[in-house]
Write a structure and sequence with these properties.
Layout (H helix, E strand, L loop, with lengths): L5 E4 L5 E4 L5 H8 L1 H6 E6 L2 E3 L9 E7 L3 H22 L4 E2 L4 E2 L2 E7 L6 H16 L5 E5 L1 H7 L4 H7 L8 E6 L2 E4 L13 E11 L8 E10 L2 H17 L1 H7 L3 E2 L9 E2 L1 H17 L5 E2 L5 E3 H7 L1 H4 L6 E4 L4 E6 L4 H9 L10 E5 L2 E3 L15 E11 L4 H18 L4 E6 L9 H17 L4 E4 L9 E7 L5 E10 L2 H4 L4 E2 L5 E2 L2 E10 H12 L12 E5 L5 H13 L4 E3 L5 H10 L4 E5 L1 H6 L1 E6 L6 E5 H13 L5
Parallel strand pairs: 1-5, 16-20, 23-24, 30-31, 30-32
Antiparallel strand pairs: 1-2, 3-4, 3-5, 6-8, 7-8, 8-13, 9-10, 10-11, 12-13, 14-15, 17-19, 18-19, 20-22, 21-22, 22-29, 23-25, 25-26, 26-29, 27-28, 32-33, 33-34
Helix pairs in contact: 3-4, 8-16, 13-14
The structure holds one RNA strand.
Length: about 650
Amino acid sequence: MPSDPIHITLPDGKVLELPQGSTAADVAASIGPGLAKAAVAAVVNGETVGLMEPIEGDAELSILTDRDPAALTVLRHSAAHVLATAVRELRPGAGIGFGPAIEEGFYYDFDVDAPFTPEDLAAFEQKMAEVAAADQPFERRRVTKEEARDLFSDDPLKLERLEEFDDDEVITVYENGPFLDLCKGPHVPSTGRLKHFKLLSGAGAYWRGDEKRQMLQRIYGTAFHKAKDLEEHLHRLEEAKRRDHRRLGKELGLFQFHPVSPGAAFWTPRGTTLYNTLERFVRERQEHDFLEVKTPLLYTKELWEQSGHWGKYRENMFLVLNNETGEHDMSLKPMNCPSHYLYYASAKHSYRELPLRYVTLDVLHRNELSGALAGLTRVRQFAQDDCHVFLRQDQIVEEVTFLMDFILGHYDAFGLPSSLTFGTRPEQRIGDDALWDQAEAALREALESTGREYEVAEGDGAFYGPKIDFRVTDSIGRQWQLGTIQLDYNAPERFDLTYVGEDNAPHRPVVIHRAVCGSFERFIAILIEHYAGAFPTWLAPEQVRLLPISEKWEDSAREFAAELDAARVRVAVEGRETLNYRIREAETEKIPYMAVIGEREAADGTVAVRKRGAGKKQEVMPRADFVARITEEIRSRAAE
RNA sequence: GCUCUGGUAGCUCAGUGGUAGAGCGCGUCCUUGGUAAGGACGAGGUCGCGGGUUCAAUCCCCGCCCAGAGCUCCA
């Protein structure tokens, strides 16, 4: 007695009729053999499911092939299971934690006595290949909590997770060959789908990310549908290593670190030139519409109590002994905001003056965990291009539009494509909803006015107001979160900030926190990696290297160097060793221009110019022409 | 902070229970060069810091410092 068929609606609106118990694989097969082969998983009524799961009743369904990002997540999740299968084969006693797909691959956490060695990883990878070759089907089963307790009686970590389920919740397990895991799924139909994968690294990871819990051993890996994608990914990892700012910073002599001041950079002369050039650029852009102020670095705790930092942020502050009181009741500033509030509050302000934009580029200190420090990207001492705008509620749209334009212009100057994220009200927040409605509407309007696409991150705003975050993509496709525009309704209350309105009564201003680079340190790290150390001429610490062919032409070279120097071009003359040696050296140091002077050039006042990376394609030109050309390139801050 | 790994010449790294090596860089001399490394000689080390084991420690053990990777993208 056949039961009623089910009706499957496809993305193009077509409706298929299939018998009860049909699976997404059946649907794919009924559409065509090509699709049946390419199918990885399916989306049924908005939920990603495995191909082999029976569809329950009428549904909207689309098939995921290896071109869908969601299918890659499924494959990687399955790869995590295959990894666990392999580890359990080789280390039967290993406890299993969680093993999800992540952005760039997957990981699985194991409870074992000792960390895995690289040799272990190689053996696991080998075993994974065997598991994949065995083409074990992934079988999904629904179980009761009671059954699950039984199945995982030897897996305390799984049991712990299990106890968090409600009694009536659907619990599923997946089984492939010898391996059984508590898992929501979905998975690819069988382990044979896993063809292109690689284990990358092992490291400790706390169970559930809680430092009070036991340390598990995590193995990271990645997997792709196509060999080419895997290769490209591995190549990108190599490329990132090659561009690592810590490595290039050392090679190009830009900055160093010393144990006597962990997390604080020593900038070399070259690095300082780079830093100052960036700072000059930032200052120049802020010259007209912003007011730069310098404020103290050290404050008593009264300020931090008022700002709320003393209670919530003290762990991250460097406290300083106050001789007067004998207490550590002073602190180096970890941010500039409170000093800007104080300065604003030091005078009465008319509504006519607003918006007021205060900028400070001072050094800040934050006591980050020692284990969190990393090169220039995570430091304890840094400087932000920090701005606080004081404005009226009715000015928000115009101001945010102005600031966005300002921030995007900055990234454009470095050829960093940017994207925008709008963070709306979080669960935990202050201020009434009417104010949030207004603030969000204003940000939205400003965002719309740019005509650019933006992502909405619901609930991602700060507790004191909504925000817009700016992310840039560097030359090898990595994304970095840099600038931010945050509305703040809390600070004006805490610091009792006011302005005198048209009605001659005091009103609360709104505060906007704005940063463009984030910190100079981190921004420079990103620039180093973005340019792979080959800075555009305007940023390069040394812009021209003059190479006299022999000592005889050194005077001529020095004369020309003086000319360039007078034109504010950063130039050095290098006369030792052979010409070939010096060319190689300048090329490795990524100097934008080499200028060679020999008998001919000295005689007719020319110079043979070789551009970085251009090889033997040199250009002989009158010296004045080269000065004109390079000064224009610097003035316009040309990209190359 | 915690786990693991590492710390040897300015840099990159090899090495050993018997007071240490390479390449590059650096110095001197020769060479005076035409577009990615000319040649010779030489200087340079508290083997991260402190303690312990040992006849003897850069090496083994303990502590500390610094660096690197990682520390929920939740079955």
